[in-house]
Amino acid sequence: MGTPAELISPRSPRVAAAKRLARRNFRTKERRFIAEGPQAVREAVRHRTGGEPTLVELFTTVEAAERYAAIVAAARDAGARIHLAGDDVLAELSQTITPQGLVGVCRFLDSPFDEILAARPRLVAVLAHVRDPGNAGTVLRCADAAGADAVVLTDASVDLYNPKSVRASVGSHFHLPVAVGVPVERAVAGLQAAGVRILAADGAGDDDLDAELDAGTMGGPSAWVFGNEAWGLPEETRALADAVVRVPIHGRAESLNLATAAAVCLYASARAQRASGGCRSVTSS
Questions:
Q1: Which of these, 164, 272, 148, lies nearest to 220 by C-alpha position?
Q2: What is the DSSP string of the chain?
Q3: Tens of pLDDT, residues 48-81
Q4: Over the range 191-212, which residues count as b (16 or more CB within 10 Å of their CB) and which as e?
Q5: What is the pLDDT of residues 209-227, one digit of tens each?
Q6: Does pLDDT of 168 surpass 70?
């Protein structure tokens, strides 16, 4: 396999530097973040940032290097520094109870918002005031699965590179452009100027998602704006949207959580955009 013969020491400066990336201020300073597990590392190996490989370093146990030999070999071929590490090192670097034996150090990969606009996106997820990193990562994964062209995190939202966000995306960080730190007013104005209809997702919205689908109004470019997990979108953000849309609750549930509502909304737009004719309601039983 060509892996190093000696295990890296838990006191190594390389281990200490990687461990510091659990803290946002160090991530921001170094413009590096941690990706855990075979799926995330595999996608990091394939990704390039600014023409350079995104994966910089890989820490792997002996067992993981054997189990995921193809990933380790690809990482080495891509120029990543490979560190053979003991379980104690992986436990220090990992944010999970049961580490999977692979931890990668990656370059930041966010895209300038202007580049996203220049690509004329048709489906975008905008995370405004989303504070839970697990929710942010899951919405990013939903956007990826629905075929969205980009995700935008406003300046009031959680850090894209929070370890919980990276884990929740299960590799989707590496699949589509993501802009970070964009003021919500700029995000909305820029997307509208690019011909994108802004839809604010809100449980108390005046417009019903089923009615929008049945009316055939969702076939064009659209951006869904998702708000805080607990209190939704503030009035000033809702006022920026072209429509405030609710997902209808046909049963007795009080509401949907953020990630579930995001999945329903994004897939509704994706289906409408891909449909050659009319579009039946996706939320009807």
A1: 272
A2: ----SSPBPTT-HHHHHHHHTTSHHHHHHHTEEEEEHHHHHHHHHH-EETTEESEEEEEE-HHHHHHTHHHHHHHHHTTPEEEEB-HHHHHHH--SSS--SEEEEEE-----HHHHHHT--SEEEEE-S---HHHHHHHHHHHHHTT-SEEEEETTSPPTT-HHHHHHHTTGGGTS-EEEEE-HHHHHHHHHHTTPEEEEE-TT-SEEHHHHHHHT--SS-EEEEE-BTTTB--HHHHTTSSEEEE----SS-S---HHHHHHHHHHHHHHHHH-SS----SS--
A3: 988 899 999 999 999 999 999 999 999 999 999 9
A4: beebebbbbbbbbebebbbbeb
A5: 999 999 898 999 999 999 9
A6: yes
A 10 A CB-CB count for 138 gives 24
pLDDT value of residue 254? 84
Least Cα distance to 81 among 99, 66, 103 occurs for 103
- CB neighbours of 173 closer than 8 A, spacing ≥ 6? 35, 40, 43, 109, 137, 140, 160, 165, 166
Cβ neighbours of 152 (radius 10 Å)? 30
Cβ-proximal residues to 116 (8 Å cutoff; 6+ apart), any chain: 124, 149, 150, 152, 177, 179
CA distance 228 to 59: 35
**Which carries the bigger pLDDT value, residue 282 or residue 210?**
210
Residue corresponding to tokens 């049963």: 251
